[in-house]
């Protein structure tokens, strides 16, 4: 397979479009909480930390949730390409509103809402177009392409954090928000230019052809959809009446988002599975995607410890003094995007090499290995944490090795997951199911708290047990996926990664 097939011309355009969108998103995210808690006379909002954290949580959760209706709009009305352009415009408007909001909180919050809605329109649909560049059965090429696309995400995150973070903290908060708007404009121009050239014919129109099942029983399906939606709304209402969730303030809403996200994810999946008019083969593949969704949520629950338990380990247990200079604990989190940019070409080459030799690893094998590697990363820290709780700080190499292993695991799971969801999803639901994939990261953050429930991860003494628990949990589920790889692949995909001819048509 030649390079032009591995990396089609449109991939570069999508790479840069996603890079600039992530620049704007991560750049704005880097200064959001800092702006909210900063004193009013310094240009901030002067909010309490708890309220600022709640607003941040609501915002990030909304970005994930809006990916579902964003995919639905593309599948039913606009197509992926128009949805991306509309999303980019709305994101840019949102950043502009943040830049000019001054002390008018309503304008600022509406700007955040615009960014969440725009990102929901853009994020799943640009990923689905990446998938459309490849044949359904080009597993290695698709995985390699998504690995390169993933580099754009992390490059944009690094650049956005540095540039927007510097402008916002050192010069003016609103200048930082404005820079994010400029970045989104550049990404939008790049995509619109490419849409008429290297991306011509991709994501142009929604998939409108219904299956025979949909034609046969549309009233039943429509009624079932309404029943599922009503049941979800009723559940949230009952929980609110019983006082299990508090919808009267930002903090309460943030706490309720866990229940809401889980409910939306379950209702969404059941609705498509039962009311989507799927064929038997499509239903089997939906089960595959559900298993992968859960595996991804579990993975992110361990990966997202970078901002909590791993941050404490870096701050309190790691030797960070080099001569007269002490390395900031927060800098260790930059190891992950650095390793991603360094390792991605090798991982992409590896997938292509294996396909050329006729060896295609099952997606369950890749996910299982990713979870095991996640566990190994924490296993390395267990003895180090036990030493550190005695008061002796350990070498920075422990944490560096953990981030390296976790990055390899991430590259085996995240771009592969994007690739697989774009490949196995029923074509008329492709964009919606790409949105469903992004909800896994949101659920992962929820699971992060459940995995370490009852453990004291806020102080160094509780970290050895927390790391050991994450090692055991992640490794066990990884082994389970490895054991399930062959039987599930045989049941759902006929024993191979390739799809039947009728499912491979674009």
Automatic annotation (TrEMBL):
UniProt protein name: MFS transporter
Swiss-Prot/TrEMBL keywords: Cell membrane, Membrane, Peptide transport, Protein transport, Transmembrane, Transmembrane helix, Transport
Segments forming domain Major facilitator superfamily (MFS) profile: 1-490
Signal sequence bounds: none
Family: Belongs to the major facilitator superfamily. Proton-dependent oligopeptide transporter (POT/PTR) (TC 2.A.17) family.
Protein's GO biological process: oligopeptide transport
Topology in the lipid bilayer: Multi-pass membrane protein
Segments traversing the membrane: 53-72, 84-101, 107-126, 147-167, 173-193, 224-245, 251-274, 286-303, 331-351, 363-382, 394-413, 434-454, 466-485
Any Pfam family matching the protein: PTR2
GO CC, one annotated term: plasma membrane
InterPro entries reported in the protein's UniProt record: Dipep/tripep_permease, MFS_dom, MFS_trans_sf, MFS_Transporters, POT_fam, PTR2_symporter_CS
Molecular functions (GO terms): peptide transmembrane transporter activity
Keyword Membrane: yes
Main localization (coarse): membrane
Gene source species: Formosimonas limnophila
Localization, UniProt: Cell membrane; Membrane
